[in-house]
Specification:
300 residues; alpha+beta; nine-stranded antiparallel sheet; 14% helix; globular; disordered N terminus
Amino acid sequence: MLNRFLVVTASLVTAALALPVDTSAQNYPRTSSPDGWPQPVWIYPPITDQNRKPAPRRDLTGTWGPLGGHMGGLQAAGVMAKPNNGRPENALPYTTYGLEVYKSHKAAEGVDAVLPAENNDPRNKCEPLGVPRYNHYNIRLTQIFQDAAKVVILYHYDNRWRIIWTDGRKLPTLLDGGVEIDGQFREQRIFGYSVGRWVDDNTLEVQTIGTYPEDRVWLDSTGRPISDQVRVTETFRRGDYDTLEWSETIDDPKVYSKPWETMRLPMRLHDPRTDIMEYYCSPAETENYNKLVGDDLSQK
């Protein structure tokens, strides 16, 4: 009897997974594809009182893109909330050490940009960007999946994925060079250690610590620093079925004298069937670029 029940249950699950995705009632942009490989569409249909649907309870699942279009999450000029453009309102509260680290970085973007051959961005060697920089580098289509224990973010750039635990575990204790869990020392991680909690039915707050040190990662493409003592706080708020706001604040006393907000990115839901082009870092392609373009530009 038990075996028969398991067979029937497995058959029902298989049938459910085989059902086609119903996209007829959704507000996300669509494109036709005779072969079933739709491309991203960046012109969003308006959300009105008539077609607005409530957000599902404690659910961030979906393929999300910046409301501003495919360039809306680029952030080449620096983090979204404080672009590195030399304006007084965007000056950062550096500590003495933080300013020293910033001046040692030779970025290809921002107000202090250098020539390509002088650029020492770790990204040029295809080093992992780390958290929070993955949030500040060419955010285009971002996929979010979740189950009862965790939320998983799939970043478009470099095909990277990140886990945010939502099962009630404690955030580790931050130490010098790592973290402490259950009385044991644990290593620093590219994405750190992330723990989330639901503030309400539509808002997830995430704390991340235990990230890479300042000699391995940058905050953004303009060379602003971030250290391994940072605490990153992110908030994901799903306003309705089709909209999501992703915000971020950093507290890094090693390089900044006070916490500050880095990002507030409005996003829209995309067709889950959208084909997402690979976007990765290749040392060979970087070398070819420098031979064809970068080296010549650096001589002028």
